[in-house]
Design brief:
Layout lengths: L5 E7 L6 H9 L6 E7 L6 H11 L3 E5 L7 H10 L5 E4 L5 E2 L3 H11 L5 E4 L1 E4 L8 E2 L10 H6 L10 E4 H7 L10 H11 L4 E4 L5 E4 L13 H25 L3 H17 L3 H8 L1 H4 L6 H11 L9 H16 L13 E2 L3
Parallel strand pairs: 1-2, 1-4, 2-3, 6-10, 7-11
Antiparallel strand pairs: 4-9, 5-11, 6-9, 7-8, 8-12
Helix pairs in contact: 1-2, 7-8, 8-9, 9-10, 9-12
């Protein structure tokens, strides 16, 4: 394969002022054998006309509309996959940008590492134009922890636009969860790692850009916090059921208890005691209650240490310190949480 076709798939909703920049960054690629599949999610502004003007400029851009439920970026991405023909796939949001040589570099590396399933590259945040903020997404690699453990505890090593997939490998994943309100990208990457897909990271200069700190409508915006938490719980449950044997083989059970713990606290803080109990009792279904650290977190919940007070604050820190020293994972504190890095380029 000397000149593979690359499919860039973009879901879009009410992005008349931003999507032209995204499409221009694709049109300006030095690598020419690409197709750009834009799937509109029911825009009510001038997004459609904006895209059609770009189509007149470059026939490689194709526009589709979501004509089935549910609404959302995941459905649009799946529609994009169904209508794409590329050997490789890149997913962008409708306000992301690509560096001019992004696809060329990614394809070149796939030619060198043709037996890999997906490759991961650095991306950089910007506000109005690339270079005005230089917010690196994260360190792609850390010497003392694996990527799957980082995803599991919320230290997200890479973003969706950072990845180029082989079509065959992405299809093994099963596509995007159209019912989920959030965490679809988390699920995609976790499943890929648990399935043992072969990947390689390239911790060099960023080749793509994500927009930060804007007030535009987002296709993935969630208004209802309770619905968002329900969706997170469903995603965590789905990943466990799909990969239980591999999770146990890799000794990752503590991370799933960690998410059940966090979600239980969030529900309690919203006054959803019954739902919090349902989430936490999932530990019994998965037989995680047999782990010694279950007692620690169970006591934390039952004694109400999650409630804010002068007394509970030091107890939280003490219990978190104890858990981290033994388990190497934080259950409340944020020392291992995702932190973006400002960089000088």
């Amino acid at each position: 394969m000397t000149n593979p076709l690359v499919s860039i798939i973009i879901p879009s909703f009410n992005r008349e002022t931003l999507i032209s920049e995204t499409l221009d960054s694709v049109i300006n690629q030095t690598y020419e054998n690409w197709e750009c599949i834009v799937v509109d999610d029911g825009s009510t502004d001038d997004t459609i006309n904006t895209i059609e003007r770009r189509i007149k400029k470059d026939f490689r851009i194709k526009l589709f509309s979501r004509e089935r439920s549910p609404k959302g970026a995941s459905t649009c991405r799946n529609i994009g996959i169904e209508n794409s023909k590329g050997d490789y796939i890149i997913f962008l949001d409708s306000d992301d940008l690509l560096k001019d040589d992004c696809i060329a570099i990614r394809v070149s590396n796939f030619m060198k590492y043709s037996d890999y399933d997906f490759l991961v590259f650095n991306c950089l945040g910007f506000k109005s134009s690339p270079g005005d903020f230089n917010l690196k997404w994260n360190h792609l690699t850390k010497s003392n922890i694996s990527p799957i453990e980082r995803f599991m505890q919320g230290d997200t090593p890479w973003a969706t636009l950072s990845v180029i997939w082989s079509r065959e490998a992405f299809n093994i994943n099963g596509g995007w969860d159209e019912e989920a309100l959030c965490w679809q990208d988390w699920e995609i990457h976790i499943n890929s790692l648990l399935l043992g897909l072969k990947f390689k990271t390239f911790d060099n200069s960023p080749d793509s850009y994500f927009r930060v700190d804007h007030q535009f409508d987002s296709i993935g915006k969630i208004e209802n916090t309770k619905k968002q938490l329900f969706s997170r719980y469903k995603i965590v449950t789905k990943v466990w059921k799909k990969n239980e044997m591999q999770i146990k083989s890799l000794k990752l059970e503590k991370f799933f208890m960690l998410w059940l713990f966090r979600l239980s606290i969030f529900f309690l803080e919203l006054g959803e005691k019954q739902k919090a109990e349902e989430v936490w009792n999932t530990n019994y279904k998965w037989k995680l209650n047999r782990k010694w650290y279950f007692k620690l977190w169970d006591s934390y919940l039952k004694l109400g240490y999650y409630k804010r007070s002068k007394i509970n604050a030091p107890l939280k820190k003490m219990m978190d310190y104890t858990a981290y020293r033994i388990l190497k994972v934080h259950f409340w504190d944020t020392k291992n949480s995702f932190k973006k890095i400002l960089v000088e380029l």
